[in-house]
Every structure is written in structure tokens, then in C-alpha cells.
Design brief:
This protein has 741 residues and is an alpha/beta fold. The protein is 29% helix and 17% strand. Helix 4 links the parallel strand 1 and strand 2. Helix 6 crosses helix 16, helix 7 runs parallel beside helix 8 and helix 7 runs antiparallel to helix 16. The protein binds alpha-D-glucopyranose. Alpha-D-glucopyranose (GLC) binds next to loops.
Length: 741
């Protein structure tokens, strides 16, 4: 008797029973559903439309299985009504994904992402994103088009507001934190949202900072600067990516199979879903890369864009492309798998509807507190003659176009913000100082060119103890399609500053802006300057607390602030050049008929010099700090080693304060010229007066390499220089050295 037979049949029976009872994996559920879909229904899943209420046409399209996702519908009852058409009235009942640009909050607005970058605090970014997910998902939004991780080195570009600044490491860490905040530990939790790492890729490198413009990116720059934050987003488990509008070296991202297949899928092993940007597939026609919408659909599907946002290319062209044999149904199936997998991961088949009992859950006290803390940590103290924290007892003149601008204080991409909930600086200062506050706007809005309001402000300043001047940009002056060639304070703000300074009363300038601005005259005439970017709902409360010394400014610049617009693009990762800057001769100092070479032949501008007005990583506190000499675990390391760096930091002042230990390295001799310094680690810390702490960095030596123009990572033997400081301004600080063998 073959004992094996009964055992095998018994095993088979058990296995069969178990498999029948065991829940299917997501991939098994995807394959099962895909196998039951018609080609029309498959293509319908690839179609994303912008919502805007319930209409019979939209309902019919959903019932026909021609819509996979909606964006911009945020009324929970309407979300449920539209979702019911998909789940209960379409043939296969596949739920829709509802999506929105929830970029830095839904109702409770956090600082714009550039301000969040200034916190250098990933935990705070994660908290803010989790709060945004809680609020947005309570309206039915389960997918946000955030975080934007486009490294931006040109402040003329309006969308610098939406990223975390000019450095790839800071952007990587903050972007990953945002992904974790949106998605939580379980994406099927109805209070989470799928993140969308965007805009893949190089959107921030738009030529001359003009939005949507072409980019030219050599391989080493692509792999050293622009790709790392996307890789970090993918590694953080981002559920979706969005392609960028721009072309890279002549290939639009919507048709770029190197980005979407070779890198994202094959090299990085990412299995999420890629959505186009708005109409970006069809815009390949405008680019001159696609002949027509059919060609655009062919190029988008072939490159690997899964979902067509408001392009109407897939839904109108793909079926015929399959019939004509130009796109295989297997290719369509792969795109659809990525969409269905996302819907299963989101738990939409189990929980397709908004729970109306807990819908529209906004402004929780803890959320407002978090938004205030984020605004405090996003505020950078650029300069201070000691007037801050303010301890005076006299009249306070509050003035400027941003002192009481509840709409503009939240900055760009604040679609769902309710300005009646914004706490402006004026409101917060009045609550703190009562009738000591005198408010004279001086300018009605940031672009106001009228000087009519100056006289009243100057008169009010005469007996003011301090002038708090809230300057900056309205929200509309940054963000998408809002690049500026002249990035100085708009309107008559410079003239207004001169009028205020002429009163002889101390002026504290607080700048709210969506980008670095060139503010040399304003900074020079100010007793102190605070840069708060656009600080969000609780920005006024945060600024009042900082000014009064109830707390301290916690920000460090995530971007370089220029002297002049003409310095852009501007960033700290400068190269030494063959003519490193020496004695700068400024334009007004050049004698008449000066000799051709009399000003020196090194790398600087005659009118702007060489350095930024304020450098990346800069930010003062209400105390002082001392950084010890970094200690290295070894002075010779192999490429496979990890270098441990420790540095003692001390609070040498009389108040508590936070700071950021920034670790920079330089490879002074390499097969491709390397920057003078590159950020390779950072850690924020808080110390009480007299307290000392030791900051520890573990630096994989491989992370100190660079990429060649073929995208190969190179870790070359040779001497390296290393600094740990609290700014990228390292002049006068001797590096410690070590050797890679
Ligand atoms: C916009 C933006 C993108 C946004 C999308 C949906 O054009 O480029 O960042 O997520 O369209 O609003």
C-alpha cells in the first residue's frame, strides 16, 4: 500500500480547504477582478476626471465603468452619492478613488512645505501630514497629490513654495516623513490617504525658473540632486507617483520610459501607481513629442503612466490602439493592475463610503496646536540686534500688507482653507498686548504701489516703542504658474520700509512669502528680521509668541536667500571653479576708466558679489551655541564602512533654544568636480542654558560618493573634508579630514 497516496490526498484536501477559507492576497484579488473586466472597463479605470458635484452625465459615465478616479470633489454626501453609482450601479462595482491637492493641510493649514522644510523636523512634517489625512479623509478624500519633492534651486520658480528647498537630503527626509504621515501604518485605515510623490522628475530645474519650462539635466546631476528624494519616497512606501509636466533633455516625463520603467519599476522595484499631471499626456502634443492625442496615448501607455488625469487620451484612444495592435491588452492590463492594487490597498472594496457620522471633522484643538508649533519651528530668525524677544512696555505699531491677511497667510495650494479660522499676527498681538497695539496697514496688499497710507503709519510710529512690519507676498505670487523674474518685495514695500526706518523707531520685519526673496535693503534697515514663509492657520499666534519670547524661532533656512534676483539659480552646493572668489570689487567702487583686469578675475558679480544674503542652513535663536570639533570613528575608511561622527554641542546663552547640527563633506579632488560642501546628515536638538549634548551621526561611506554621467555611483579613494556646524556658511571653520581607501 502506498502510504504516500492517502497522505497526499489528505494534504491536498486540507490545502484545498485552507485555500478556500484563506483570504485571497491583494494580487490574487487583482487578477481575479482583472479576469472579469472588459477592455472598456479596464480603460475606464485609467481615466481620472475632475469632480464638481453630481451630474447625470458623470453618474452615467461612472455606471458605464468609464471613470476610475475623481479629483476635487470634497463634499462627503456627494462623494458617497457618486461612489454609490460605482459600487452599486456599475457592472463590477469597482469603487472610485477620490483625490485632492492636500498639500500642507486641508482645513487646518500648516506652513507651506518650504516652511516645513525650515523646521528641519521630520517628525513635525509627519504629524502635519497625518492631521491633513485625518481631516481630508473625513470628507472622502483618500488620495492626496503630495508630497512634492522637487529640489528647487531657483527662487524665481513659483513652485519652490511646494517643496522642501534646495537640498536633496533635506528634501528626501521630509518627503519620506510626509509619506508616512499621510499613509500611516495601514493604508486600508479609512482615516489615511495615499501619498503621491511628485513631480517625477526634475520639474524644479525649469530653465530660468519659468514654470513648465524645459530642463537639461546631465546624468550626474539627475542622480546626485533630482532623483534621491523620489527614491526616498518610493522607499518610504509611497502608494503613487505623479509625472511632471516638463521634458528632460527633450523627453517629456509623461512619455519617459527610462524614468517610469527602467528606474521606478526595474531598478527601484516600486509597485505603486503612476498618475499623469493634469492633461500632461495630451500635452505631449504641445511639447512636439506626440503628433496627436492617439500618439500621446500610445506614448503615455508605453512609457508606463497608469492613470490619465483629465487628459481624456486613454479613454478615447486606447481601445482603438489595442484593436490596431499598437498597444497590447497585456500593456493595458499592467496599467490597470496598478490602479486596482491601489484600490485594494486603500480598503475601498471594504470601505467605499464616508462615514457621515464622523464626516467633516476639522480643527481639532490638538491639530491647531500642532499647526502653531509647526509655524514656530518654521520661522527663521535671520538677524537680531537684541530687540527680540521684545520686552518693552510701550506702544506697538503693527503695520504692513501681511499683518492682517487671513487668506494670504496660508500661501499657495490652500484650496480648502477657511480664512475665518486664520489667526493673523494682528489678532494675536492684540490678544497679547491689548490696546498697546496700534494698527496702520500702510499698504493694503503686497502688490499695492500706493504710498497714500504711509503718512498715517509714519505719524503713528512717532511714539511707538517698536514697529512690527509684516511684509511679503500674497499667496497668489507663488505656486503653480506663478514664477517671478524679480524676486524682491512687490509693490511699494521697499519704499514703505524706508519711510518706516526714517522715523528712527526700531523696525522688526516679519516676511511671509512663498519663496526666498531678495531683501537686502529691508534687512539692512531692520533691527531684526523673521522669515516665516507662509505660516498657515496659526501663523499669527506663532509669530506673536516668538516676538514676545514665549517661545523661540526654531527655523533654519532650507533655501539660500539672494542679494539680488540675478543671482538665481542659487544654492549652497557651489563649486570652487578655476577662479575661486577673492577680493570682491563692487560696482560702485570701481574707479573711472578702470583697467580691464583691475577688479580681479575671480568668480563674483560686480553688483551682487558671491554669497547669498543669508545662506542655506542659517537661522538664529534667542540663545547662543557652541559646536565642538567633530570626532571621527576612524581616519581611514573603506567604501563599505560606516563612519561614526560625534560632535559636542552646548547652549552657551541664557535662554533655551533649538538648533540643527548639519554635517557637510567635501571631496576636494575627484574624477568629476564636486561641490565645496554637501549636506550628508543633520539633527535638530534643543538645549537649556548651560546644557551640553553629543550629536552622533552614522554616515555610510558609500553615501559620500557621487554619480557619473551614466548614473553609476562612484566612491573614489582619497582625502575627504568634514564639518559639523549650524549653517552652510563654513568660512573660517577648519574641517576635520579622513581618507577613503
Ligand atoms: C496641477 C499640478 C499638480 C496637481 C494637479 C492636480 O497642475 O501640477 O501638482 O497635483 O494639477 O491639481
Amino acid at each position: 500500500m502506498n502510504f504516500r497516496t492517502p497522505l497526499l490526498s489528505l494534504t491536498a484536501a486540507v490545502a484545498l480547504t485552507l485555500s478556500a477559507a484563506a483570504p485571497q492576497s491583494i494580487d490574487e484579488r487583482v487578477e481575479d477582478l482583472l479576469s472579469r473586466m472588459t477592455l472598456t472597463e479596464k480603460i475606464g479605470q485609467l481615466n481620472q476626471l475632475s469632480g464638481g458635484g453630481y451630474s447625470d452625465d458623470m453618474a452615467q459615465a461612472i455606471r458605464n465603468g468609464q471613470v476610475g478616479s475623481l479629483l476635487n470633489e470634497v463634499d462627503p454626501a456627494t462623494v458617497n452619492r457618486l461612489q454609490r453609482e460605482a459600487v452599486e450601479n456599475s457592472r463590477l462595482g469597482i469603487p472610485l478613488i477620490f483625490s485632492r491637492d492636500v498639500i500642507h493641510g486641508f482645513r487646518t493649514m500648516f506652513p507651506i512645505p518650504l516652511g516645513q522644510g525650515a523646521t528641519w523636523n521630520p517628525a513635525l512634517v509627519e504629524l502635519g501630514s497625518s492631521i491633513a489625512a485625518q481631516e481630508a479623509s473625513s470628507t472622502g478624500i483618500r488620495w492626496t497629490f503630495s508630497p512634492m519633492v522637487d529640489v528647487a534651486r531657483d527662487a524665481r520658480w513659483g513652485r519652490i513654495a511646494e517643496g522642501y528647498g534646495e537640498d536633496p537630503l533635506l528634501t528626501s527626509v521630509m518627503g519620506a516623513a510626509a509619506v508616512h504621515g499621510y499613509q500611516g501604518d495601514d493604508l486600508s485605515d479609512p482615516h489615511t490617504m495615499a501619498a503621491c510623490v511628485k513631480h517625477f522628475a526634475c520639474y524644479g530645474a525649469a530653465e530660468s525658473g519659468r514654470d513648465y519650462n524645459t530642463t537639461w539635466i546631465p546624468g550626474s546631476l539627475l542622480h546626485d540632486i533630482y532623483l534621491p528624494p523620489f527614491k526616498a519616497g518610493a522607499d518610504a512606501g509611497a502608494a503613487t507617483f505623479m509625472v511632471s509636466f516638463n521634458d528632460i533633455n527633450g523627453v517629456p516625463s509623461s512619455g519617459n520610459s527610462y524614468l517610469l520603467r527602467t528606474l521606478l519599476r526595474d531598478a527601484w522595484g516600486w509597485d505603486g501607481m503612476v498618475v499623469s499631471d493634469w492633461n500632461s499626456i495630451a500635452e505631449m502634443i504641445n511639447h512636439g513629442y506626440a503628433a496627436d492625442r492617439r500618439d500621446a496615448a500610445l506614448k503615455g501607455a508605453t512609457a508606463g503612466v497608469d492613470m490619465d488625469m483629465e487628459g481624456h487620451a486613454y479613454v478615447n484612444e486606447l481601445e482603438q490602439l489595442v484593436a490596431d495592435g499598437l498597444v497590447s491588452e497585456a500593456t493595458v492590463d499592467d496599467l490597470v493592475r496598478n490602479v486596482l492594487r491601489l484600490k485594494f490597498r486603500l480598503g475601498l472594496f471594504e470601505n467605499p463610503y464616508v462615514d457621515m457620522a464622523t464626516a467633516n471633522d476639522f480643527y481639532r484643538p490638538a491639530s491647531l496646536d500642532a499647526a502653531r508649533l509647526a509655524a514656530e519651528e518654521a520661522t527663521v530668525l535671520l538677524s537680531n540686534n537684541g530687540i527680540l524677544p521684545y520686552t518693552g512696555t510701550g506702544k506697538i505699531l503693527v503695520t504692513g500688507p501681511m499683518a492682517d491677511a487671513p487668506h494670504d497667510q496660508s500661501g499657495t495650494w490652500s484650496f480648502d482653507m477657511d480664512k475665518t479660522h486664520t489667526v493673523t499676527p494682528l489678532a494675536a498681538l492684540r490678544a497679547k498686548y491689548g490696546d498697546r497695539v496700534v494698527y496702520v496697514p500702510g499698504l493694503a496688499y503686497s502688490r499695492d504701489r500706493s504710498t497714500d497710507g504711509f503718512a498715517d503709519a509714519v505719524a503713528a510710529a512717532a511714539d511707538a516703542d517698536i514697529i512690527l512690519y509684516f511684509a511679503g507676498e500674497e499667496a497668489v505670487l507663488s505656486g503653480e504658474a506663478h514664477s517671478r523674474a524679480d524676486i524682491t518685495l512687490p509693490g511699494a514695500q521697499k519704499e514703505y520700509m524706508a519711510a518706516l526706518a526714517a522715523t528712527g523707531r526700531p523696525v522688526v520685519t516679519i516676511v511671509m512669502a512663498g519663496r526666498p526673496l531678495a531683501i537686502p535693503e529691508t534687512a539692512a534697515a531692520s533691527a531684526a528680521v523673521l522669515y516665516s514663509f507662509h505660516p498657515g492657520t496659526m501663523g499669527g499666534e506663532a509669530l506673536a509668541r516668538i516676538i514676545a519670547g514665549d517661545t523661540y524661532p526654531g527655523g533654519k533656512l532650507p533655501v539660500s536667500l539672494p542679494v539680488m534676483s540675478g543671482q538665481e539659480p542659487l544654492h549652497y552646493m557651489q563649486k570652487n571653479t578655476g577662479r575661486p572668489v577673492e577680493n570682491i570689487t563692487y560696482i560702485d567702487d570701481i574707479p573711472l576708466e578702470a583697467g580691464q583686469t583691475s577688479t580681479g578675475c575671480t568668480t563674483f558679480f560686480l553688483d551682487a558679489g558671491y554669497k547669498p544674503l543669508f545662506p542655506f542652513g542659517h537661522g538664529l535663536s534667542y540663545t547662543t551655541f557652541d559646536f565642538g570639533t567633530p570626532q571621527l570613528s576612524a581616519t581611514t575608511v573603506a567604501p563599505t564602512d560606516t563612519l561614526v561622527v560625534t560632535c559636542a554641542v552646548s547652549n552657551t546663552g541664557r535662554r533655551a533654544g533649538s538648533n540643527v547640527a548639519q554635517l557637510y563633506v567635501r571631496d576636494p579632488v575627484a574624477s568629476l568636480v564636486q561641490p565645496l560642501k554637501v549636506l550628508k546628515g543633520f539633527e535638530k536638538f534643543t538645549l537649556n542654558p548651560g546644557q551640553t549634548s553629543v550629536i552622533r551621526f552614522e554616515i555610510p561611506v558609500a553615501s559620500l560618493g557621487f554619480h557619473d554621467n551614466d548614473g553609476n555611483l562612484i566612491v573614489e579613494p582619497g582625502d575627504m573634508q568634514l564639518w559639523v556646524s549650524d549653517s552652510s556658511e563654513l568660512d573660517g571653520i577648519a574641517p576635520v579630514t579622513f581618507t577613503i581607501r
